[in-house]
Amino acid sequence: MKIVVIVEGKTEKAFIPHLREYLEKHLPGAMPRLDTLPYDGRIPTGEKLKRVVKSLLEGKKPAECVIALTDVYTGTPDFRDAADAKAKMSAWVGNVPQFHPHAAQYDFEAWLLPYWSTIQKLAGHNKKAPAGNPEKVNHNNPPAHRIKEVFEAGSCRDSYVKPRDAGRILRDNDLSIAVNQCPELKAFINTILEACGGSVIP
């Protein structure tokens, strides 16, 4: 099974190694070939996304499954929320059963908020964690901005850098914690598990 995940480049560097480690535990003997197609900045939209997906599914070494993973917060008003992002990506690509759109609500860093104690430790600051469901934290201040704020206020004397610090946050933590708190993350992982014949996470 070959699965290609279309993803923003910084997310690919920060998250995909930990995703592979998580999947290996849940797909013993059935681990897919998990390739990524990273883009600097946001992933393609509209007709370009359709062309990219078609190329991945019909190329010389075709994938059996293509997943697009985008943030809702892209710096543009394209998406209202994760449901809107997924609906629009589906409409752009058309009726392609092998294509699965997913979105982090509001950005990838929502999936890091369950590890706030690790964020505090790395930042050197005891700023209180945002309250509520991690994927509903925004109020015009999305999760990435909140993590940046605590890093810049802390004694680490540095700002948050996704490729470096997201990996540090995830390194010593169990991804299952975020999966159980973040429905969009769970849906993304369940797409992969189901495609590989594994047991989905309830």
Instruction: Kindly provide the radius of gyration, computed on alpha-carbon positions and rounded to a whole number of angstroms.
Output: 17 Å
Proportion of β residues? Answer: 5-15%
Structural class: alpha/beta
Which strand order do you get reading across the main beta sheet? 2-1-3-4
Indicate the percent of residues in helices. Answer: 40-55%
How confident is the prediction overall: mean pLDDT?
A: 93
What's the β-strand tally? 4
Assembly category: single chain
- What low-confidence regions span 5 or more consecutive residues with pLDDT below 50? none
Shape: globular
First-to-last CA distance: 23 Å
The topology string of helices and strands comes to EHEHEHEHHHHH
The total count of helices amounts to: 8
Largest sheet: 4 strands, parallel
How would you sum up this structure, described in words?
This protein is an alpha/beta fold. Helices cover 46% and strands 13% of the residues. It has 8 helices and 4 strands; from the N terminus they run E-H-E-H-E-H-E-H-H-H-H-H. The protein is globular and about 50 Å long. The mean pLDDT is 93. The protein has a 4-stranded parallel beta sheet with strand order 2-1-3-4, sandwiched between helices. Helix 1 runs parallel beside helix 6 (162-171), helix 2 (46-58) packs across helix 3 (82-93) and helix 4 runs parallel beside helix 5. The protein starts with a strand and ends in a 7-residue tail after the last helix.
